[in-house]
Design goal:
Largest sheet: 6 strands, parallel
Number of helices: 7
Distance between the termini: 42 Å
Strand content: 15-25%
CATH architecture: 3-Layer(aba) Sandwich
CATH superfamily: Flavodoxin domain
Radius of gyration: 18 Å
Helix content: 25-40%
Order of helices and strands: EHEHEHEHEEHEEHH
Length: 203
């Protein structure tokens, strides 16, 4: 008899959302750093999603996102991009104790595309961006995103040369690796739920 071999984990797609569109933004550099760390995880695929590429205006759909009714091409393009991922990392600066308006707006455009997926946070700012993440955790709950506890907090004083050039401390990489590990576990655990609401409604 042949011994049963354990099933190999199914590859999952995680979107790293660069959550700032401001001139001189740091979110792309932070996203690229995280993607380089994630490259050591062969069973997952990590892709940077730059919300600036989608040119989203302030939410301009006539129907609530939860209705699933869309009229604007930019909304449909954004929805298709987000629907293709099973988990997310939100990269956010802290502006006035909150995440960036651009990131909040991008989240508000959609509903079902976020639901039943896991999300992690990398935050940066004068105090590590921790207040922005506390705000995002409340938003995630309303969108039925499962936020994991570990996050990565980056300080302008400690992780940016002259407060401008991203140069993270060595220990940040371990924090990121821990976060990515937990994100992958939660993403895989939630994957069976994806599409279940549509099945139930059809039945």
């Amino acid at each position: 008899m042949f011994a049963h071999m354990p099933d190999q984990p199914t590859a999952i797609r995680v979107g790293i959302i660069a959550g700032s569109t401001r001139a001189g933004r740091k979110s792309i550099a932070v996203a690229q750093w995280l993607q380089s760390i994630a490259a050591a995880r062969p069973d997952e695929s990590y892709e940077i999603i730059d919300i600036a590429d989608f040119a989203l205006p302030l939410v301009d759909e006539p129907f609530p996102p939860a209705s699933g009714r869309r009229e604007k091409p930019h909304t449909m393009r954004w929805a298709a991009a987000i629907a293709s991922f099973e988990g997310f990392v939100l990269i956010t600066p802290e502006y006035n104790h909150s995440p960036s308006a651009a990131l909040r707006n991008a989240l508000d455009f959609l509903h079902d595309e976020w639901a039943d997926k896991a999300v992690a946070f990398v935050n940066y700012g004068a105090d590590g961006g921790v207040r922005a993440v506390e705000h995002l955790r409340q938003i995630a709950g309303e969108l039925q995103l499962a936020d994991i506890r570990p996050s990565v907090s980056l300080s302008f004083a400690a992780d940016f040369e002259n407060y401008t050039t991203f140069a993270p401390r060595a220990d940040r990489e371990q924090a990121a690796a821990t976060m990515l590990r937990d994100l992958a576990r939660w993403t895989r655990a939630l994957t069976p739920l994806l599409g279940s609401a549509a099945v139930l409604s059809a039945g």
